[in-house]
């Protein structure tokens, strides 16, 4: 379920496929967010001259300064709630090096908003519309205390997916399942149609869960709550070593509670 304000009892000190949203591989088509929050492809500018021709954002390769985020005091992605996620570095996968790069609005809004307007993604994330809708969703996290960090998934230097890594135990989701301290949640979507339906979602879900478990020693479980209707997403989680724990009624959907246990990471 997308991050929102936690109940008072869970509040920490204030701080400042189609889609794999929480349930799909971007739903493997694309994973959609579990319990979503609010709901933009950007119209292409007319080409006036070949000199002005630009590659589509999804084909843009980030430079070294983008794929190695700098930790800055006060930046939620550098904070303690998610163990300085911005500094985790890349994971090696069969598809190439994969890294979670915290979103920067000035750089990434058009790309993420475009993905949110893909009908396969919009069906679960519910963020289709003008870029301002996606911007509001991102700002809620970027202006928060670091309990949820929005990221680009960068594979071999190319941004190709969107992720939210969040403290499930500090999220309203904790009201709907027996949460444990430091449970860490994942929402994701695979941006490009060409990257869906070929097992890439499972590969990246496993890599991301491993990043969480490697860099968050107090976290014993990685959790997700894909929409129960999003069968490609659920299949991706199962292939990535998650287990189906329960069906859960969330405010905006019936979800499949998926859990990857630290104790079982070498077994599943």
Number of strands: 10
- Just name the CATH architecture: 3-Layer(aba) Sandwich
- End-to-end separation in angstroms reads 24 Å
Summarize model confidence as the mean pLDDT. 81
Q: Determine the oligomeric state from the structure.
A: single chain
CATH superfamily: Gcn5-related N-acetyltransferase (GNAT)
What characteristics describe this protein?
268 residues, alpha+beta, Aminopeptidase, two-stranded parallel sheet, globular
Describe the structure.
The protein contains six helices and ten strands; from the N terminus they run E-E-H-E-E-H-H-H-E-E-E-H-E-H-E-E. It is α+β, with helices and mostly antiparallel strands and 268 residues long. The protein has a single domain (16-40, 60-264), classed as Gcn5-related N-acetyltransferase (GNAT) (Aminopeptidase), CATH 3.40.630. It has an eight-stranded mixed beta sheet with strand order 3-4-5-6-7-8-10-9, with helices on both faces. Helix 2 (105-116) crosses helix 4 (131-142) and helix 5 packs across helix 6. The two termini are 24 Å apart. Residues 3-30 and 32-59 have low confidence and may be disordered.
Question: Which helices and strands, and how do they pair?
Answer:
Layout: E1 18-22, E2 30-32, H1 64-67, E3 91-93, E4 96-102, H2 105-116, H3 119-125, H4 131-142, E5 148-155, E6 158-167, E7 184-190, H5 200-215, E8 221-224, H6 231-239, E9 243-250, E10 253-261
Parallel strand pairs: 1-2, 7-8
Antiparallel strand pairs: 3-4, 4-5, 5-6, 6-7, 8-10, 9-10
């Amino acid at each position: 379920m997308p991050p929102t304000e936690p109940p008072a009892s869970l509040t920490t000190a204030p701080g400042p496929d189609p889609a794999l949203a929480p349930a799909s591989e971007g739903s493997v088509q694309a994973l959609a967010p579990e319990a979503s929050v609010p709901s933009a492809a950007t119209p292409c500018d007319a080409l006036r001259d070949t000199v002005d021709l630009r590659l589509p954002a999804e084909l843009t390769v980030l430079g070294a300064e983008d794929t190695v985020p700098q930790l800055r005091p006060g930046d939620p992605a550098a904070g303690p709630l998610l163990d300085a996620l911005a500094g985790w570095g890349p994971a090696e996968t069969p598809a190439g090096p994969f890294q979670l790069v915290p979103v920067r609005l000035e750089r990434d809004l058009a790309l993420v908003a475009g993905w949110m307007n893909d009908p396969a993604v919009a069906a679960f994330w519910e963020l289709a519309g003008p870029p301002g809708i996606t911007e509001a969703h991102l700002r809620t996290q970027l202006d928060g205390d670091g309990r949820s960090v929005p990221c680009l998934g960068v594979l071999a230097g190319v941004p190709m997916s969107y992720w939210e890594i969040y403290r499930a135990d500090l999220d309203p989701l904790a009201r709907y399942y027996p949460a444990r301290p430091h449970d860490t949640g994942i929402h994701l979507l695979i941006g490009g149609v060409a990257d869906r339906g070929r097992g890439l979602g499972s590969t990246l879900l496993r890599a991301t869960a491993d990043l969480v478990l490697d860099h968050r020693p107090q976290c014993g479980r990685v959790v997700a709550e894909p929409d129960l209707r999003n069968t490609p997403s659920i299949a991706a989680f199962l292939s990535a070593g998650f287990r189906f724990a329960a069906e859960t009624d969330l405010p905006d959907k019936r979800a499949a509670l998926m859990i990857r246990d630290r104790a079982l990471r070498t077994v599943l």
